[in-house]
Amino acid sequence: MMAKTISAALALVGMSLAAPVAYALEPEMVDGKFKEVRVLTPVTKAGELKPLKQAGMVAFFSPLAADLFAQEWRKRPGNEGEFRVAPLALTQFESAYLAAKESNSDLAKTYVPDPAQIPAVVGLQLQQGRTMEEARSLARREPYVFCPDPLVRITQTQDGKSSTVVPCAFTFTSMALLVNRTNQNAKAPTVLRAYSLQEMVQFLSEQSGDDARNLVIASPIAAPTAEN
Question: CA 126, CA 206: separation in Å to the nearest integer?
Fold first, then answer.
């Protein structure tokens, strides 16, 4: 069962994105925000999830992150052979980790962020009050979600029905372009901020307004293409 997967697996710390605390979204709704977020994780030849020595269960937030990790992994004694990864929803990864940890309390979990996003995360964390040492350490060991501040609401109409999304993403470029477009005709500037997964869960767990309900986090890993 996916309910409470994300909030159970991630410690709730940090700050909310914007508004003061309100009635929380239901755990199922919080979890739902991460169901379309895909990561890559090591698997066996049979396709089963494969914890690694020292690292435990590993979630890669980009193909580049997986490739660089694999290069170092192959250098270790006994690690010859193919390093296989497969896409998996973040909620499924967290659920599998919690289940495995019940039988192995020492099982570790490792997030490997996209190296291409680290410079942007460091820069934004410095703007958000971190020291250089803190910013570099955090950016290298956990993924960050980029969101406009204030949040940007995009309303679309199709077949006479309108819907609103509040976009965030794991990639700096897409959100930076959105912020630039938003600022072209804005009276007050919109800036870009980087939030940890814990901070995103904190926000979604505490807010019940439209922004929380409409927030969409773009996946760092593209959806598998359908085979003909």
Answer: 26
Q: How far is it, in rounded angstroms, from Cα 64 to Cα 59? A: 12
Neighbours of 115 (CB within 10 A): 16
Cβ of 174: how many Cβ atoms within 10 Å?
14
Looking only at the bridges linking them, the beta strands covering 215-218 and 161-169 are parallel
191-205 average pLDDT score: 94
CB contact set of 33 (below 8 Å; sequence gap of 6+): 6, 200, 204, 215, 216, 217
Report if residue 125 sits inside a domain.
no
DSSP 43: B
Q: Which residue has the tokens 């204030």?
A: 150
Burial class (CB in 10 A: 0-12, 13-18, 19+), 225: exposed
Residue 15 in any domain: the answer is no
Q: What are phi and psi of 155, to 5 degrees?
A: -105, 130
Encoding tokens for residue 115?
């190296």
pTM of the prediction? 0.87
Give CA torsion, residues 10, 16, 21, 24, to 10 deg.
-40
Structural domain contains residue 124: no
Angstrom distance (rounded) from CA 52 to CA 87: 17
User: Is a pLDDT exceeding 60 seen at residue 148?
Assistant: yes
Question: Of the candidates 112, 133, 156, which is a domain's last residue?
Answer: 112
CB 32 within 8 A of CB 219: no
